[in-house]
Specification:
With 181 residues, the protein is an all-alpha fold. Helices cover 79% and strands 0% of the residues.
Amino acid sequence: MMPRKNYLVNRSFQANMVVTVMSFSLWLMLIFTAVALCAIYFYKSYCSTDSGVTLLKTDAYYILPGIVIFSLFLLGTLVLGAILYSHRIAGAAFHIRANLRKLREGQYDLTTTLRTKDFLKDVALELNDLSEALRRREDHHLLLREKVRGLLAAAQPLAASDEALRGKISEVEQLLDPPPA
């Protein structure tokens, strides 16, 4: 299957996933920053002869910009990863939804194929099985319609003399026509 050109297939789902990953990542970065600053404070307090608070202030001046830059880089990487990862789900769901519409419209000869790294492959296989079952059922119904039409044609001479039989044949002929989609 050809790669999709648009990575934002289902914008609401993918935006929700990105926001979730970002918020989770921000909380983790804040916690790790606080732990790192506490570790520096306790290290300087117990392993140094100078006051831990004064050293923390001077060290934080040099350490915090590095932590912020690393955190922003990590956040950008996680957002890109979330978009690419969610695309495997949203893109597959988009393709499956399109094939469901085709099934609803009566196209039973379709096959749902997903890319190798897409998720929801089990759903695509079930959709393929459903499509095949519906195609076989449609073929069976077409065969039955053909047989019943043959019986109706054979019964037409008898119906000419019997009004009740003519009414029943008319009802059956109406049932043989497929309902509008």
